[in-house]
């Protein structure tokens, strides 16, 4: 144990610097794929363990965070015992530990290096501008700078550097608000922030990712409305320009309009009110779509396993059972997937009411506290506002999403939890 107690060892191997660099590179590893994310997480875990064992006081400093995490992990492990597939559930549950370490590493670096938060947001801005620029290049050229072609199977969908995955819009929107921390800390002219917002929004709309576009527009409006240190007249002007620009870009581009507006209207079953011409075959309401079929299947799995759920990551197993063939959806044959595309339905179907209610109460507490901070702390509230917007973006109940327990999506959830923990501790202190 003397090995861990030697601070000189940390200096020799630059453990803290390696940890910081690994955290800086996490957004890049998301582009490279799950393997890169997991390797990066492993590096972070090893270095964080070295740091904590070199200073045992850190366990006391972060004891509340340890308690909260292991409380939830205990509930999840308890559910695993009754899972329909114990092996799958156990592996997925224990996989959350890596993201706890990721969150803790981010929190440690923010609190122990005054420049880390600023440097991290600068690096994040550069990454997002690169990804957005690469996607814009693909829009005009047909291929991005790496030679990746836009996917034409669904009407020229942009994928940027993500290959055949339609996730570039989600990537930009989910990381956008954290990158805004730079403008708050550096106290830059908000005109630059507004121009940056318009640029990221434009590219997100061009990707035709409906939920990413909707959430970015909605959340950006909230952000501009409550942003402090800006004249009311200028704020109104920014919001007006933002809304007009978004509307014009959507309405003047037929491809974007068809995918974001027309298709959405068709799926919620109100197309007749808008006199939209379409084939009878396409006259579907949401629950007749494949997404709706996933939702209905998850709900029925919950009804069959109300208290403890079917087990973490078992939706992919349960959805194919014969008992769910009769769900009331025209897309019931495509009801199966790896997850139901909504984290709340995923948690209640796989974890039951025990995990769901714990998760809801925890997030409601976060929501309430962030709202309170926004209205309580006046001009110093902007950091709380940024974190609230990111939290709202990820945990909005209407948000379609990947699995809470998956590698790619897990990063976003636990990334924002790190900033939430930092803000709570900052306000308390």
Describe the protein.
- By secondary structure, the protein is an all-alpha fold.
- The chain has a domain at 286-334.
- The chain is 70% helix and 0% strand.
- The protein has 21 helices and no strands.
- It has helices at residues 2-5, 7-13, 15-24, 26-32, 34-54, 57-61, 63-81, 86-94, 96-112, 116-141, 168-179, 181-185, 190-206, 210-226, 232-252, 254-267, 290-304, 315-318, 343-376, 382-395, 407-428.
- α3 (15-24) packs across α9 (96-112), α4 (26-32) runs antiparallel to α5 (34-54) and α19 (343-376) runs antiparallel to α20.
- The radius of gyration is 23 Å and the shape is globular.
- The model is unreliable at 270-283 (pLDDT under 50).
How would you summarize what this structure contains?
This protein has 429 residues and is mainly alpha-helical. The protein has 21 helices and no strands.
Task: Please specify the SSE layout and strand pairing.
Layout: H1 2-5, H2 7-13, H3 15-24, H4 26-32, H5 34-54, H6 57-61, H7 63-81, H8 86-94, H9 96-112, H10 116-141, H11 168-179, H12 181-185, H13 190-206, H14 210-226, H15 232-252, H16 254-267, H17 290-304, H18 315-318, H19 343-376, H20 382-395, H21 407-428
Helix pairs in contact: 3-5, 3-9, 4-5, 5-9, 7-8, 7-19, 9-21, 10-11, 10-13, 11-13, 11-14, 11-20, 13-14, 13-15, 14-15, 14-20, 15-16, 17-19, 19-20, 20-21
């Amino acid at each position: 144990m003397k090995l861990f107690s030697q601070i000189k060892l940390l200096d020799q191997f630059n453990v803290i610097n390696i940890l910081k660099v690994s955290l800086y590179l996490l957004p890049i590893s998301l582009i490279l794929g799950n393997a890169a994310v997991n390797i990066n997480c492993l590096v972070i875990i090893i270095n964080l363990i070295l740091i904590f064992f070199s200073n045992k006081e850190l366990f006391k400093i972060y004891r509340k965070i340890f308690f909260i995490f292991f409380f939830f992990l205990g509930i999840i492990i308890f559910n695993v015992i009754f899972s329909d597939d114990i092996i799958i559930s156990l592996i997925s549950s224990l996989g959350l530990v890596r993201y706890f370490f990721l969150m803790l590493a981010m929190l440690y670096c923010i609190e122990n290096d005054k420049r880390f938060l600023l440097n991290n947001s600068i690096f994040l801005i550069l990454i997002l501008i690169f990804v957005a620029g690469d996607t814009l290049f693909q829009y005009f050229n047909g291929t991005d700078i790496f030679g990746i072609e836009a996917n034409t199977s669904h009407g020229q969908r942009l994928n940027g550097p993500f290959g055949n995955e339609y996730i570039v819009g989600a990537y930009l929107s989910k990381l956008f608000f954290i990158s805004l921390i730079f403008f708050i800390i550096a106290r830059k002219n908000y005109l630059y922030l507004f121009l940056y917002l318009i640029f990221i929004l434009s590219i997100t709309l061009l990707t035709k990712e409906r939920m990413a576009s909707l959430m970015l527009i909605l959340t950006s409006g909230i952000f501009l409305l409550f942003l402090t240190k800006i004249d009311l007249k200028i704020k109104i002007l920014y919001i007006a320009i933002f809304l007009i620009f978004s509307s014009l870009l959507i309405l003047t581009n037929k491809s974007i309009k068809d995918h974001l507006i027309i298709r959405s209207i068709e799926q919620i079953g109100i197309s007749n009110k808008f006199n939209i011409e379409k084939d009878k075959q396409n006259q579907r309401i949401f629950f007749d779509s494949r997404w709706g079929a996933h939702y209905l299947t998850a709900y029925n799995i919950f009804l069959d396993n109300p208290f403890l759920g079917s087990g973490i990551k078992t939706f992919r197993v349960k959805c194919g059972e014969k008992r769910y063939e009769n769900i009331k959806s025209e897309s019931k044959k495509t009801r199966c997937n790896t997850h139901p595309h909504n984290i709340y339905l995923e948690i209640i179907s796989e974890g039951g009411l025990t995990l769901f209610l714990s998760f809801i109460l925890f997030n409601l507490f976060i929501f309430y506290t962030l709202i309170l901070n926004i209205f309580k702390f006046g001009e110093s509230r902007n950091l709380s506002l940024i974190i609230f917007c990111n939290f709202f973006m990820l945990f909005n109940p209407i948000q379609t999403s990947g699995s809470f327990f998956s590698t790619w999506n897990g990063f976003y959830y636990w990334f924002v939890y790190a900033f939430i923990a930092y803000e709570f501790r900052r306000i308390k202190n």
